[in-house]
Structure formats: C-alpha cells, structure tokens
Design a protein that fits this description.
131 residues; alpha+beta; two-stranded antiparallel ribbon; 4 helices; 35% helix; 11% strand
Length: 131
C-alpha cells in the first residue's frame, strides 16, 4: 500500500505540538471515529439487503420444468443428518473408485466421493471424482 492510499483510507489528523503544550499537558484530544463506524455499518447493512434482494429475485426467476424427470435431483437439498432408515444405511455397499474396471461392467455400483471437475463434451458429461 502506498502512502497516498494509506492517507486516503485513514484520513489522519495532523497536530503540531510545542514543547510548552507537551509540558503543560495541553494536547488536543482525539475525536472518536464512531461517526465513521456508523456509516460503515450502514453501508454493510445496505450491501447485505441488496444481496438478499438479488437472491430472492433469482429464486423467483427460476422455473422448474414439470416435464423434467431429474428436477428433484438438483437445487437446494435438505441436510441429511442421518435421518434415513438405519437398517438401509448400513446395508449400502460402497465401491472404491480405484477398483472399478471391466469386471463391474453392466452392474449398478454406489461410489462415495466429491466432484473435483466436470467437463461437458457434446452430449456427454465427464465427472472427475475424488474420495
């Protein structure tokens, strides 16, 4: 940060002190920056309100196609919190991504991971998963 930028940001007040003022203790008092804090808080609240309006506006604009068979599979989801049936939860068999090969061809497998990268190529989509 340059000195000029610092001076703009902080707006320091310059005082000249004489030896007499220092000896008498007659130094000027600093003004509190509450006024600056109030304006900063007001701007912060204004930005937050604008962001909330933008989110509300985009939510209104999103229209779900009733003919879309995968509409329930994307968008905002509930947190799982392990609310599912515990019997079913422990019967799921996860397959390590590294063990997938030709022997699993045609089988339905369940993998657990996070999406690292997604690329679309023509009518296909490629997912790079990480465990």
């Amino acid at each position: 940060m340059t000195t000029a930028d610092y001076m703009k940001a902080e707006e320091p007040k310059w005082h000249v002190f004489t030896d007499e003022e220092i000896a008498l203790g007659d130094l000027p008092t600093e003004e509190k920056k509450e006024e600056k804090k109030d304006t900063r808080e007001a701007k912060k609240a204004e930005r937050l309100a604008a962001r909330q309006q933008k989110v509300a506006k985009t939510e209104e604009e999103v229209k779900i196609d009733p003919n879309d068979v995968s509409a329930a599979l994307f968008g905002e989801r509930e947190i799982n919190r392990s609310q599912g049936d515990p019997e079913l939860r422990f019967t799921k068999k996860f397959t390590d991504v590294g063990t997938l090969d030709e022997s699993k061809k045609g089988e339905e497998v369940v993998v657990r991971g996070r999406i690292h990268n997604v690329r679309g190529k023509g009518g296909l989509a490629f997912f790079v998963l990480r465990e």
